[in-house]
Every structure is written in structure tokens, then in C-alpha cells.
Amino acid sequence: MTEPPTPPEPVVSRRTVSDAEGRAASRRWWDEDADSYQAEHGAFLGDVDLVWCPEGLREADVRLLGDVKGTRVLEIGCGAAAGSRWLDGQGADVTALDLSAGMLRHARLAADRSGVHVPLIQADALAMPFRADTFDTVHTAFGAVPFVADSEALMREVFRVLRPGGAWVFAVTHPIRWIFLDDPGEAGLTAVHSYFDRRPYIEQDSAGVPSYIEAHRTFGDRVRELTAAGFILCDVVEPEWPPGHEEVWGQWSPIRGRLFPGTAIFVARRPAAP
Ligand SMILES: C[S@@+](CC[C@H](N)C(=O)[O-])C[C@H]1O[C@@H](n2cnc3c(N)ncnc32)[C@H](O)[C@@H]1O
Q: Where in the numbering of this chain does the Methyltransferase domain appear (predicted)?
């Protein structure tokens, strides 16, 4: 019997990509990965819960978004939208947005399971179908921000849809992680990459078409892109690895988490109207 041909390994590189290339790669990647992402992480994230990161920090405990009752809240890169369903239960008027139809299919399945239905919109966070000054809060846990080529443009787009005084809270991979291999074990403890190499990490097929993109920004870059868009940076939370937490999520693990941060959560605000 002949073995089926093994698909070729994607070629990895660090190079700049256009917004269009990034959008196409992300949409295809997250559509194809949606089932396995939810199978692997769905139980940890829950159907109705806002978990900020693999360290397990929960909005119910830290209240980074403050009191959302009666306010308009947008989640970008929502995936299965568990966070939006939880905020719906807190009395917020929520909308959840994602680029990927595959991820939004899981949001509908989770809505049916939980009985909590929130509006779901398929769109690119770089060009959102909302009027200016619409939302009181925009948030995301690892959605959209790491996967767009031009995160400066994303900051401006979030600023546009927020009302004056509104909050922008987003969790991303901690910038320091980019100096290490993407490995949860001992091999992930040794610095091998330059922290200052901002070229996106790209996986591409044999024709050179990107199939996955993830972009690195240094800590200073993140501060500058927020302030350049007009935001005031209020806080940066670097969640610590909790004692007894043994769950490995990709490159996040107890071995690494006990030594250095894996997540950075930026809390920013659009200035109030004068
Ligand atoms: C790592 S998943 C996080 C999903 C969810 N926030 C969670 O905590 O499970 C990244 C999500 O960002 C979405 N995404 C990537 N690029 C996007 C873009 N340009 N606009 C909107 N969503 C995007 C993906 O489709 C995916 O659902």
C-alpha cells in the first residue's frame, strides 16, 4: 500500500508583508485552525468567561474593563467570543468581531450551548464597519493585534470607533518572548533571536504565499503606537504564573512562566472630550 504524500513543511522566514497578504494569510489560517484551536483551548477558555491569557487571569477577578453595565463593548479577534458572552451577563451591550468564519462558527456553537447569543460580525479589525465614536470599550485577548502587519493602523482604527473617554484593553504575547524559541520546555529558556528584529514571523508555502503571520513589537514600540494614535496608556499588566497552574498552552508553560512573563495586557484610554 502506498503512503499518502506528506504535505511539505511550511517555509519559515522573517520578512515584511502587505496588509492584504496578512489578511489573506490570517483568514485562511484561522479558518483552517479553528476546530483544533477550540478542541485544544475551548475548555480552558469556557463558553461564558473572559480569560485574558494562558496564565489564567480572569476578568471576573481583575476587572481591567471596570464596570461595563449599560455600556457598549466591542471585542475584536473574538474567536469563539466567550468573553463577549460573559460581558453580556455583566449588563454590557456587546458586539463581537472576527476575521475568520471558522472561528465565528465556533462562536455560534458556543452560543447555542450556553444559550447566550451576542451579535457576531465578520470583518477585518483594520477596517471595521462601525461609525466613529461608537463604543465605550474595545478589548481583545490575543485577537487581531499580533496578526496584523500594521498594528499602528489598528491602534488608529480602534481609536476611531471608541468614544472620547473610552477604554482599549488588549492582551498580546509579551515582547520579551520573541527572543526565545517557541518552545515550552528547556529549549525555550535560551535567547536566540534579536529583540530588535521587528520583521514579522512568516510561514509560507512553496510558492512564497504567506500562510501564517505574527508580528513583533518591542515594549517601546507598543507604547509609541498607542500614544501616536492618541491614546493615554494607563497600565501594563504582566500576569504572573500562578502556583499550581500546570497547563501548557503552546509556548506558555510553568517552566518558563515561573521565570519571565509570557503575556502583556495594555490598558489605554482615549482622552475624554475637553
Ligand atoms: C489567538 S486567536 C484568539 C481568539 C480569542 N480572543 C481567544 O481568546 O481565544 C486570534 C483571533 O484573532 C482573529 N484575527 C486575526 N487577524 C484578525 C483581523 N485582522 N481582524 C479581526 N480578527 C482577526 C483570528 O481569526 C482569531 O480568531
A: 73-166
